[in-house]
Automatic annotation (TrEMBL):
This is Glycoside hydrolase family 1 protein. The keyword Ubl conjugation does not apply. Belongs to the glycosyl hydrolase 1 family. Keywords: Glycosidase, Hydrolase. The active site is at residue 368. PANTHER family: 6-PHOSPHO-BETA-GLUCOSIDASE ASCB-RELATED, GLYCOSYL HYDROLASE. One of its GO terms (molecular function) is hydrolase activity. It comes from the Bacteria. It comes from Microbacterium pullorum. Pfam families: Glyco_hydro_1. The keyword Hydrolase applies.
Length: 474
């Protein structure tokens, strides 16, 4: 094995990513309202509960709300140049439709930004990351209702006015295409998925896309030096066989994800997407103002998560499905899988980068990528740590492919590994599904001290950053 020969470029942003509901805790502290996550104690594996329950690990999570300074110092120790985090909408507007923002919530993120600035870490802020205020879900049925565009605009105006001079990079919605598969978590849609009509679902999609364009417009008014990006869940789709019907099936499935980037980058719905709506019997309510907003407020860059690829086939008898984040897919017989069934495909990241660059010619930002695994805290030379060579191998192989994409000519802004510190999983609401370079002593039953420990991967990632990728192993 030899080292890579090409370092990543100067200015490449290295860091990690988290979401408020998965790390902050303090779920009702300082005026915060309930979010949809407060009635999702088991992630997407079971229906929502009637109200908060004591078994919801996210109520405390890893207590970042009180420990942010300690955690950001650890990020700085690794050499981060950027940190992606989300703002909890219900900390700022507890119900979502409040007339005035909650000052205590705004002040908390001021303190987080202070700490990042102290360490020279560039903030990358996600405006809405799977935490729609619960009141908006219950009173309005979430993004099905056009009123949410106005509530979201009020929210983003407050954020850009308050933090616009301090935050250069913004993402409007996390994994916006996931609303099709997880309408409650992604879109705050309270109607059960099996009762939700295609018209209501795709109207909600439209409202989110319009709101995203509106946020871009507002940012350019209030924070003209900021860059605004969309964020999509990337999952390359391969034909299971060379049969042209399988190739067409893969293309059709792939386009269900690509459509969201097409609208954000090109400012209009692509023909294939409109055809799919017609075939579903869906006729969207699209106003002329909507069309103008979409056309005139395209994004500066495209960000995405990448965890796995899937296969697709037109042959129903071969549809042996595997797991892959929020999206279903046909298992690839050529790939192995993680402990949670997500197929591991480093080359798929290079494929996604090249596909997106060829398609959109916009700078790309990998804002989630990582391995969820069961870690064991052990003692090595008197120091408590996790010997997570499996995580190092996973991240190394993916970052090597990012380097290959850079050599291909793809413009990649940066890389923020998902769950840079252990957090509560979005899909399963477990703490035992660990992603971080930093082990947090908390368990699925809520026990633990919350003490932080550096894993072996902590030092490895610090060296990768220090050498601008030259320490990666091919």
């Amino acid at each position: 094995m030899s080292n890579t020969t090409t370092a990543f470029p100067d200015g490449f942003l290295w860091g990690g990513a988290t979401a408020a509901n998965q790390i902050e805790g303090a779920y009702l502290e300082d005026g915060k309202g309930l979010s949809i996550q407060d009635v999702m104690p088991h992630g997407i594996t079971t229906p929502r509960t009637a109200g908060p329950t004591d078994d919801n690990l996210k109520q405390v999570a890893i207590d970042f709300y009180h420990r942010y300074a300690e955690d950001i110092a650890l990020f700085a120790e690794m050499g981060y140049s950027t940190y992606r985090f989300s703002i909890a909408w219900s900390r700022i507007f507890p119900n979502g439709d409040d007339a005035e923002p909650n000052e205590a919530g705004l002040a908390f993120y001021d303190r987080v930004l202070d700490e990042l600035e102290k360490h020279g870490i560039e903030p990358l802020v996600t405006i809405s990351h799977y935490e729609t205020p619960l009141h908006l879900a219950e009173a309005y049925d979430g993004w099905v209702n056009r009123d949410l565009i106005g509530f979201y605009e009020r929210y983003v105006r407050v954020l850009f006015a308050r933090y616009g001079s301090r935050v250069k990079y913004w993402l409007t919605f996390n994994e916006i295409n996931s609303v099709i598969h997880a309408p409650f978590m992604s879109g705050g849609i309270n109607t059960p998925k099996d009762e939700l009509s295609p018209t209501d679902l795709y109207q909600a999609v439209h409202h989110e896309l319009v709101a995203s364009a509106l946020a871009t417009k507002v940012a350019r008014e209030l924070a003209p030096n900021a860059q605004i990006g969309c964020m999509i869940l990337a999952m390359p789709v391969y034909p299971l066989t060379p049969n042209p019907d399988d190739v067409m099936a893969a293309l059709t499935t792939d386009r269900t994800n690509l459509a969201f980037g097409d609208v954000h980058v090109r400012g209009a719905y692509p023909g294939y997407y409109l055809r799919s709506l017609r075939e579903k019997g869906v006729e969207l309510d699209i106003t002329e103002d909507d069309r103008r907003l979409l056309a005139e407020n395209t994004v500066d860059f495209v960000s995405f998560s990448y965890y796995a690829s899937v296969c697709e086939t037109a042959d129903a008898s071969k549809r042996v499905t595997g797991e892959g984040n929020l999206f279903p897919g046909v298992r690839n017989p050529e790939l192995r899988a993680s402990e949670w069934g997500w197929q591991i495909d480093p080359v798929g990241l290079r494929i996604a980068l090249n596909q997106f660059w060829d398609r959109w010619q916009k700078p790309l930002f990998i804002v989630e990528n990582g391995l969820g695994a069961k870690d064991e805290l052990v003692e090595v030379d008197g120091i408590r740590t996790v010997v997570d060579d499996y995580r190092i191998a996973y991240l190394n192989d993916h970052l090597v492919q990012v380097g290959e994409a850079l050599e291909d000519g793809v413009e990649v802004m940066g890389y923020t590994s998902w769950g840079c510190i252990d957090l509560v999983s979005a899909s399963t609401a477990q703490l035992s599904k660990r992603y971080g370079f930093i082990y947090v002593d908390r368990n699925d039953d809520g026990s633990g001290t919350l003490e932080r420990f550096r894993k072996k991967s902590f030092g490895w990632y610090a060296e990768v950053i220090r050498t601008r990728g030259a320490a990666l192993r091919r």
